[in-house]
Design brief:
The protein is an alpha+beta fold. It contains 8 helices and 7 strands; from the N terminus they run ααααααββββββαβα. Strands 4-3-2-1-7-6-5 form a 7-stranded antiparallel sheet, covered by helices on one side. A hairpin with a 4-residue loop joins β2 and β3. α2 runs antiparallel to α3, α3 runs parallel beside α4 and α4 packs antiparallel against α5. The N terminus and C terminus are likely disordered.
């Protein structure tokens, strides 16, 4: 029984457990090898595509940089504003900007050249390699892959006959050895050998093809890597050269700027505008050498000027006399200033009396009175101002007589002298219904005869007629003064100020 069991037939299956090459149907699938090689070619094709995309993107960036540098060039393309201030020759600011323009245009052109070089030299290398990888993949599909399919077909045929032999050997054992001639295990075994021989031939041929493909892969991959290196070297020459040219252009800009002498532009500016610039060696201006139109016009010369003491008969009378600088002008004003200094501050009158509108009191020794409105506040302020009686005191009687004589002459009256200060007559200010001010009307008054005992000999005394501002004659400011001996105002006129020095030197 044990001997019989040892000779029982074994049915073969398509999934044998043997892993060596002695099996009729090996577990190694030749299509796996072809698929692996095909996948490797696909990987190299994608790597080449990645590199192509990188080069194409760089090409586009170079073109975009060229456009951006064109925009940069527009910022300095216009001529310099106020360019006449700069020397137009080389070596100055104008030359620097001309250098910047040319170098910026050169940088833009270098980017365009780099874009064309990449497109015409680098990309074709990778495009040819991409096509070679595709052709290699097609060759592999037509050759080794097709042979692998023939091997699979032969193995399937052999596997079917091996399974048929297993079925009929089992039938022979169970039926006592009676089988059909065509299914005789002997005949089936010979058929298996025939088909197995054909399978082995197909396998060996396919194996030979795969070995050739594997060997060719080594050299083909070396070719791929060499092509990558060649493309990148050409890319470096193009892009690196562009960077070197760009660096040289920027260096030229900096070098041009550093070569400008620090005083080059200013010396040229001074040379071109020497007629407008100030000469440092020229002397400073002096007031004594300055002249202007109407500087010596008679209306600008005072009739009399000097210091007087003044006391108001209003609330200011408690303060006593205050010394100020006074001037009688040909415009018939009596102006009061703090002093005769025209430099320290603007000499604006503190008080201005229009003498024809004032009432002039009689002279008494060193004193005389004037009653009127302050006109220094303008038309509005003058209309609202009230009349004030002001008492003046000169340093000496002779000086007071000169002041009084000039003031009376300007006011249009004749000088009146008395030992006592008489009260001046106040003008009657008439106003109409509409509120407009009418010319003042003065009431005619008679004064007592003037004592002349204390007057110096030769001094002219005015008549003892009525002292009225309204009765004066309209004499021009340059008419001679009868009583005071004031000369005509004109060229060479000397104001009777009562002091030896000129006005403004007190």
């Amino acid at each position: 029984m044990a001997t019989h069991q040892q000779h029982l037939p074994v049915r073969a299956t398509g999934t044998g457990s043997a892993l060596d090459d002695d099996d009729a149907i090996p577990d190694v699938d030749p299509t796996d090898t072809c698929g692996l090689l095909q996948e490797r070619l696909q990987a190299y094709k994608h790597a080449c595509g990645y590199l192509e995309n990188y080069i194409i993107a760089t090409e586009k960036v170079q073109k975009a940089h060229a456009k951006e540098y064109e925009k940069i060039l527009k910022t300095v393309s216009d001529p310099l504003k106020e360019g006449h201030h700069f020397d137009q020759s080389l070596g100055g600011i104008a030359g620097l900007f001309e250098n910047i323009r040319s170098n910026t245009q050169g940088i833009a052109n270098s980017h365009l050249e780099t874009e064309k070089t990449i497109k015409g030299s680098v990309l074709p290398i990778l495009e040819r390699l991409h096509a070679e990888i595709k052709n290699k993949s097609k060759e592999l599909a037509k050759g080794a892959v097709k042979g692998s399919k023939e091997v699979d077909k032969a193995r399937n045929t052999t596997q079917k006959h091996i399974e048929l032999l297993g079925q009929h050997t089992a039938a022979v054992s169970s039926s006592g050895g009676k089988v059909d001639p065509s299914t005789d295990p002997y005949v089936l075994q010979r058929g298996i050998k025939h088909r197995l021989h054909k399978q082995v031939l197909e396998e060996n041929n396919n194996r030979h093809d795969l070995i050739e493909v594997q060997n060719s892969f080594s050299s083909f991959e070396a070719h791929i890597i060499q092509t990558f290196q060649q493309a990148l070297q050409t890319f470096l020459q193009s892009v690196g050269g562009q960077h070197e040219r760009q660096k040289a252009m920027y260096s030229d800009m900096v070098s041009t700027a550093q070569k400008i002498p620090l005083d080059f532009e200013f010396k040229g500016f001074v040379h071109r505008n020497n007629q407008l610039l100030i000469d440092p060696s020229a002397p400073k201006r002096d007031m004594s050498s300055i002249s202007y139109p109407n500087q010596g016009h008679p209306s600008t010369q005072p009739l009399i000027a000097g210091t007087l003491e003044r006391k108001s008969r209003a609330m200011g009378a408690l303060k006593g006399y205050s010394t100020d600088y006074y001037v009688v002008t040909p415009s018939k004003f009596l102006h009061e200033f703090k002093d005769d200094d025209d430099v320290r501050k603007d000499p604006v009158p503190e008080l201005s009396l229009y003498l024809p509108d004032c009432t002039i009191g009689a002279l008494s020794g060193e004193k005389f009175n004037i009653k009127g409105k302050d006109a220094s506040k303008g038309k509005v302020g003058g209309a609202l101002a009230m009349s004030h009686e002001l008492s003046f005191k000169a340093p000496t009687s002779a000086n007071a007589e000169k002041w009084y004589s000039v003031i009376k002459e300007v006011a249009g009256g004749s000088a009146t002298y008395t030992n006592e200060i008489s009260s001046p007559t106040s003008p009657v200010a008439g106003r109409n219904v509409s509120g407009q001010q009418q010319p003042p009307q003065y009431e005619e008054k008679h004064v007592a005869p003037v004592q002349t005992q204390c007057l110096p000999q030769g001094q002219g005394v005015g008549s003892a007629g009525p002292v009225s501002a309204g009765g004066h004659s309209q004499q021009p400011y340059n008419s001679p003064i009868s009583s005071g001996g004031v000369q005509n105002v004109g060229s060479g006129f000397t104001p009777t100020s009562g002091v030896e020095r000129k006005p403004g030197q007190y």
